[in-house]
Design brief:
The chain is 88% helix and 0% strand. It is mainly alpha-helical. It has one domain (2-9, 22-235). The protein is elongated. Residues 1-12 have low confidence and may be disordered. InterPro entries: Ccc1_fam.
């Protein structure tokens, strides 16, 4: 029983770390694409460095704050649901402990334990910490490690910001004649890397993810650059 519990805990923590890492990669990817589309679009209309910097910074701040707020709300809702589920489980354990023991036994049986072993394991787990046992086996929740909305918000903010800085700096630092080329090449390289990383984390084939990611980024930059050019021509 000890080995099984250890493996499940280890697997759960590993899965959680991979989920956070995948979210960070996707957040950085969003920052790259959205900011690249913005600064390339502005570059289609003007080559003024201050205008490009202002637009890029505005997009970076707006995007990172939006990502952070959205993640905070989402994870807060999840945390509230987890707390409500734990409160209900705590109430059921207090009001009908025998029925809950039978339920835990059945859940362990469905995981492959024999009836006798499942019953013995359920008894031992209940004696040790009934709420934690039901939370983990029945609800898939660790009551000692609930999701933290602030951690999620900061992670999204930092991931988006890190991704957004690449196209912003690539656009404003080089000489005017090289800005667009440097930005496009930097962005496509970064998108290839994030596509490869997300595919590897999801145990998927990287080639398709890389092509999909770079094609989407190239399309976004092409559309916004064309729009910026048309606006510049119309205003001339």
């Amino acid at each position: 029983m000890t080995e099984t519990t250890h493996d499940e805990t280890h697997g759960g923590s590993l899965g959680e770390r991979l989920n956070w890492l995948r979210a960070a990669v996707l957040g950085a990817n969003d920052g790259i694409v959205s900011t690249a589309g913005l600064v390339v679009g502005v570059a289609g209309a003007t080559d003024d460095r201050s205008a490009l910097l202002t637009a890029g910074l505005a997009g970076l701040l707006a995007g990172s704050m939006s990502m952070a707020a959205g993640e905070y709300v989402s994870v807060s809702t999840q945390r509230d649901s987890e707390k409500a589920a734990l409160a209900q489980e705590r109430r059921e354990l207090r009001e009908r402990p025998e029925a809950e023991l039978v339920e835990l036994t059945g859940l362990l049986e469905r995981r492959g334990l024999s009836k006798d072993v499942a019953r013995e394991a359920a008894v031992q787990l209940t004696e040790r910490d009934a709420l934690k046992a039901h939370a983990r086996v029945e609800l898939g929740i660790d009551p000692d490690d609930l999701t933290n909305p602030w951690h999620a918000a900061w992670a999204s903010f930092l991931a988006f910001t890190a991704g957004a800085l690449l196209p912003l700096l690539a656009m404003v630092l080089p000489p005017a004649d090289w800005r667009l080329t440097v930005t496009v090449l930097s962005v496509l390289t970064a998108l290839a890397l994030t596509g490869w990383s997300s595919a590897r984390l999801g145990a998927a084939a990287p080639t398709r993810a890389v092509l999909r990611n770079t094609a989407g980024g190239a399309l976004a930059m092409g559309v916004t650059y064309a729009a910026g050019t048309l606006l510049e021509v119309a205003g001339a």
